[in-house]
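Hello Y.,

Per our agreement to keep a running log of every chain we model this quarter, I'm adding this entry. I've kept the format consistent with earlier entries: sequence first, then predicted structure.
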Amino acid sequence: MVSETFNRPVLLAEDMKNPSPADIAEMKARGFEPATIAAARQQAERWAKGQEVAKVIEQAFDNVKLGAGVGLGEAQGLDDYEDAATRAKYREQDEKEDWRRIPAEALNRCNSSLSFFDAEGMRFHLPAFLTAELRGEYDFDVSFHLTNLSDYSISQLVLLTPEQRNAIRVYLLHLAEDPNREFHRPEILRALETYWGEPTSNHSAP
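Predicted structure for the entry above:
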């Protein structure tokens, strides 16, 4: 949305999520405020860095399969207290081979599944949630499940390899630099200094 301030267009915050170079060039041509253009450039740089982080995650979780782990819809069944037969039907529809095939719409609809995955389910689905968030397609906060750690949430993470743990660390470091995450920065840094600060995955809650 664009508002007019003294006849000079001003880009509102919700329009600056992932501005492209073309968007910024158009802003300059239309006479946007220099401060607005500078903020858009910074946001574009952060988005580009986020795509590099997404590549790190994709490489670390390449070829991960669901196996016997809890599926995306199956986890929703657990959240909804469905019976075993209903959960099995949900599981039949769940992606099991390639987490990249899970659409962002399904991740948003099943956002609470992150609280109901077992370790195999978390290892399979976590990269889908993280990369969707970095692309600006996920409407919730994945980092909560990686920074507010309990014995249960840590049990969901025990199958991560050192490479996968490092990818999560890269993601959290990226978030820690985000000015929009200032309120959550202390808990992100605490998790980085404790659970995510070591290369091995055999940790207990800090």
